[in-house]
Every structure is written in structure tokens, then in C-alpha cells.
Amino acid sequence: MNTKAFLPLALILVAASFTGCAHQTTRTGSKTNLLFGLVEIERGAYQPAPVYSLDANSNDLIGNAGKPSGTQTKIAWGLITNNDY
What we know:
Order of helices and strands: HEEEEHEE
Helix content: 25-40%
Distance between the termini: 48 Å
Strand content: 25-35%
Structural class: alpha+beta
Shape: elongated
Radius of gyration: 17 Å
Strand order of the largest sheet: 1-2-3-5-6-4
Largest sheet: 6 strands, mixed
Number of domains: 1
């Protein structure tokens, strides 16, 4: 591979991965965005999944793992949503 093209591409990918992260504390819990919203983790949300999302529940996927945390994980800007409640 051409090393002159690889270096700028690598720098752009590293910069994009570090600049796209955000963490905020809301009144209902905390919210973390990774890679410009590609992955979004919201703790203590207890909110239903958006209507356009493929919804999954942690208890259905892995069984009852104990006390529900209310964590909602959205992948691909909300196209896939996993709820823990």
C-alpha cells in the first residue's frame, strides 16, 4: 500500500475517533456518545426504544441477569436498540 496515502488516512481516523466522544449527565442518568453517535449509551434511562429501531431486551437475549439497570444502548444512530429493564 502507498505509505503517502496511508498516513493521512490514519490521522483522519484517529482524529475522528477522539473528537466524536461526548459524555453528559442528565436529570435521568448519564449519556455517552461514541464516534459521532454511532454508539450511544444512556444509563438510567428506562425509556422505550424509538419506533424506527430494532428493539432488543437484555433479559430476552441473555436471561435474567439480576437487577435491571435501565441502560439503553443504541447502535448505528438508533437503528438497533438494546434495553436493560
